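Troubleshooting entry. The earlier prediction with magnesium ion gave an output that would not parse, so I re-checked the input for stray whitespace and re-submitted. Clean input:
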Amino acid sequence: MSPDPKPTRAAILDAVRRAARQEQFLEVVSAAEARRRFEARLDPAPLVGETLPLAGSLSRVIAADVIAPVDAPPFDRANVDGFAVRAADMLGAGPSTPKRLTLNREVIACGIAPAVEVTPGTATAIATGGVIPRGADAVVMIEHTELIEDDAAPSIDVHRAATSGQFISYAGSDIARGETLLRRGTQIGSREVGMLAACGLTSIEVVRRPRVAVLSTGDELLQPGQPLRPGAVYDSNSAIIAAAVVETGGEAVPFGAVADDAAALEAAMRSALESCDIVVLSGGTSKGAGDLSHRVVSRLGRPGILVHGVALKPGKPLCLAVIGQKPLVVLPGFPTSAIFTFHAFVGPLIRGRAGLPIEAAARVTARVPLRIPSELGREEFVLASLVRADAGLIAFPTGKGSGAVTAFSQADGFFAIDALASALDADSQVEVTLIGKSDRAPDLVIMGSHDIALDVVVGALAERGVRARTIAVGSLGGVDAASRGECDIAPVHLVDPTTGIYNKHLLTPDLALIPGWRRMQGFVFRPGDARFEGRSAEAALQVALADPAILMVNRNAGSGTRALIDSLLRGAKPAGYANQPRSHNAVAAAVAQDRADWGVAIAPVARLYGLGFLPIAPEHYDFLVIEARRERPAVQAFIDALEDEATRGRIRALGMEL
Ligand code: AMP
Ligand code: MG
């Protein structure tokens, strides 16, 4: 919707009515039923072939069996430097009973066709790769002979017996003319290229890669590279999906982002159907004002929409259609949902058409340490980070909601919660389907509160070859994980409400504390706001509390900053108190974008967002370490990195005190 500078009352009401309209899904079906309906209408066969020059064929799939047109090697060939002989002449040869052979007047180098026959009692000098001459049936190594220099009749003494065929590769022993050299469906690697070249082939028939149109829709979408305007987001789905298309064996044809406009969307989809084998659109799927994708699809042709609404989380608004022979899929706009449903419904389709095997995903069993509530009636997929503990693998949910782009990249895999369960109990065993490359397990697991300077330490560890995995679960989550032995190090910043001292109260006989750094917490506001500018934090707070028009932004319960805010407010709950985002960045963004007037955040983040900052108190960000693991090399490397002057300098440059 384009912003009207002065919308009339009627226009606003109309827009609200449209936004509030809850169009129903045609019929919500299970994931298995959705797949069945879709596959029943699709041709799963690999696409017909195209001929490519050998050099351009790498990683493509062979479309038809390749029959060897020639032998390799094409002739009987010497495997060593030495002499071509008759094995029968060598009978009884030994160190003390050498056999003498007269040399023929020929030396067979590579590429020379021999002219002289090896007759009984004679030998011909031959190089590795040379053609075995007529009469010879073995080669003796030059090391096992001695040259007898006689100008009239040069000869050799051979000190070893030879068997027939010794050091000879026979014609066709590597590749025999007429045999099936490579089977269709084989993916071409360097070995295959080598085999084809050895047969003299210059081109190969490969399966044509399916052309997959990638479209996004949304008025708010901008292409990366353009400056961000208020309310806009970058079109990340186009990039992720195009890359995933290539990863699964297709050719991505980018169509960019189309506005939420039925005519424009229809035109784009028609042109995509015209030029491509498969069409993938993301967005325009949430129920309400912008939900046009499925309405546009419904008028593109027959058989049309097969599935609209799948009992899947994330991914419910998925729409599967076939227009003519071509599959058209509308993925939910939220990035995590889009990529999930892509892998579940589009990836296998592309692989099949590209002639690639549909790999069974690898799975591992892991324990989920916490309870996860789930919606009854929908199979729910939970992204998880895997950690190896003493008692086996543990899966931590990394879910950030289906809008998160990073959730997928930080996860090792995912597990499902049954549609008939309303929750997964703590300590359940689950089967985790692994995604992406199975990298080696991290050397060090850090779980707790995240901080930008922690990235500096992790970077320093990486330079030392130590791979650390950080899982942001908040300070309290870190304390729990450390006491259960699920991590090596837990970064925390929790104040003891009775003493006002940070973190020391968390110590137990099993946990030690390594000092980290201090982060100055402060009152943040938009620069130039005369209500706060130039005051102390305490005075600014009094101003804010006195004026009900001034809106605050709070923090989530359990965070160290929330404890500080509550102690400052002394029971007051000013306007905006209920707004409780989970990070310093979200607080700073709310103030910078005028959705709130003040909040509490750390100095480096205030600086990043260009906000005014009135210091309140330093907060201690320290590290809990499990005593029993302190001597582990990766834990020692962490402690060393923290003490390293260069690392400390970089941490200070971010605005931390240490
Ligand atoms: P929609 O399915 O269009 O209702 O979109 C649902 C959510 O996903 C909204 O927050 C959109 O801004 C977001 N979204 C839709 N398409 C994209 C895209 N191509 N890239 C990033 N986010 C998107
Ligand atoms: Mg949209």
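This one parsed fine. The chain has a mean pLDDT of 90.
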